[in-house]
Design goal:
alpha/beta, Protein-Tyrosine Phosphatase, Chain A, 2 domains, six-stranded mixed beta sheet, 15 helices, 16% strand, globular
């Protein structure tokens, strides 16, 4: 298959299968020669911050001289964004060849009907095939959904298991309580593992994680315990198990990226079994950007796009807006998927905005924008419906005016619709994140 045919095959697959479990994925990988065992892995699970933490972990290890692969989900614009080799998206021909091999193996195994492979299983298998063929030293793998039944849970927790945080999301699949969600996500770590790195947790999530860790004899490093952040004068110091990395300036925008950097530092140091080079850490912290994570397109007006797509993500975004816009309150372009807690999401972000323009992303499960607008109005925020994402962006730009600000948020799929328009409209002003 060429790349177009390969991606058409991927897009033809169901996102979720009819049967939970890892037997099908393990069988498929065995037929492919177990490429996931070709190199050690760092396995990243959690509710928010997984992609940023994955990218930062890979970049920190690359700065130590390792060849790295980073597997991300979902992408924003193109499928090849899901696998980064040494910091660059995988070449299209390489990705197509891996997908062809996986498809041929699937056909040989006869998976069909209720036992058909899912889109994520195929992408994950192809990513392992590419990483193994590239001969990387480490692959940093972001889980897709949950942990226990996720297609990435064939790594045995990896050399390091990272839990970025926990918030209530996908409750129909992961459970209604923090304890149930913690159990699903930490199920990727084998009993007795002492190689966990855990991010910032609110009190309820921390209690849930403590319970799961005690039940399964898990231990490791946790932000605000073995990993500490000290902020001052626009820079920060991060201590990891007694090693202090000073004068770090985080290039990625948003206060939440400091947490992600701290967790990534913990993962990299845990993986290497030694401290990292402090100068390399400073350079990496300043350099790494993650598209779609509080990414700013300067202009008149300024536009920021962010992939926050659940209440916890929206709250983190809201606390970072002053860092981007100062005292200006943006006009927000918002689309969400229909399984999200719309009320809680808008409760976090709408008060920070002058108005909400509700739209519908190109994803088939995008919520009715009329409902989004109605929810914003109930919170006292002016709102209108512009169903087409491009037209919604144009309306927001006009309403904000040259001196104003625009925020695009609520769904990574909305960013996929809007980001190419911004890149085309502002080619001389590269985005910053």
């Amino acid at each position: 298959m060429n790349l177009a045919d390969a991606l058409a095959y991927v897009e033809s697959l169901d996102i979720l299968g009819m049967r939970f479990g890892l037997a099908r994925m393990e069988h498929l990988l065995a037929e492919l020669g177990n490429p996931h065992r070709a190199q050690p892995a760092i396995h990243v699970v959690g509710t928010n911050g997984k992609s940023s933490t994955t990218c930062l972990s890979a970049a920190l290890l690359a700065a130590e001289g390792l060849r790295t692969a980073a597997y991300l989900s979902p992408h924003i614009v193109g499928w090849t964004e899901r696998l980064m080799i040494d910091g660059d998206a995988v070449r299209g021909d390489v990705f197509a060849a891996a997908l062809t091999r996986v498809r041929d193996t699937v056909d040989h195994l006869g998976y069909a009907g209720d036992d058909s492979v899912t889109q994520f299983e195929v992408l994950t298998a192809a990513a392992f095939v590419v990483a193994a063929a590239a001969g990387v030293d480490v692959v940093v793998v972001e889980a897709g959904l949950g942990g226990r039944y996720d297609a990435t849970n064939v790594l045995g927790g990896g050399a390091v298991t990272v839990l970025t945080n926990i918030a209530r999301e996908h409750t129909e699949l992961l459970g209604e309580t923090e304890a149930e969600i913690a159990g699903e996500k930490l199920a990727v770590a084998p009993d007795g593992s002492d190689r966990l790195v855990i991010g910032r947790l609110d009190p309820a999530a921390a209690a849930a994680v403590d319970t799961v860790m005690a039940a399964h004899r898990l231990s490791g490093w946790r932000l605000e315990r073995e990993i500490l952040i000290d902020e001052a004068d626009g820079a920060c110091s991060i201590a990891v198990d007694g090693t202090v990395y000073r004068r770090l300036r985080v290039g990625a925008t948003g206060r939440f990226q400091r947490d992600n950097l701290a967790v990534a530092l913990g993962a990299a140091q845990r993986f290497l079994g030694r401290p990292l080079d402090a100068n390399a850490v400073r350079a990496t912290a300043a350099r790494v950007r993650v598209p779609g994570r509080l990414e700013v397109f300067a202009g008149a007006p300024d536009v920021a796009i962010d992939g926050a797509h659940n209440p916890a993500g929206m709250r983190a975004l809201a606390t970072s807006l002053v860092e981007v816009f100062g005292a200006r309150r943006p006009v927000a372009v918002v689309s969400v998927l229909d399984d999200k807690d719309l009320g809680a999401m808008l409760e976090a972000i709408a008060p920070c905005c002058t108005a909400v323009i509700a739209t519908r992303s190109s994803h088939r499960r995008a919520a009715d924008p009329a409902g989004v607008a109605a929810a914003a109005r109930r919170l006292g925020t002016a709102a209108e419906v512009v169903a087409d994402p491009g037209a919604a962006l144009a309306a927001a730009l006009q309403e904000a005016g040259p001196a104003g600000a625009v925020l695009v948020c609520g769904s990574l799929y909305l960013l996929g619709d809007v980001r190419p328009l911004l890149l085309a409209a502002r080619p001389d002003d590269p985005p910053r994140t």
